[in-house]
Amino acid sequence: MLKNLVRIGLARGIGGSRAWLAVGVTAGGLRLVRRALKRQADVVYCEELRPGQSLVVQHIPRQK
Question: What ranges do the domains of the chain cover?
Answer without folding.
Answer: 2-37
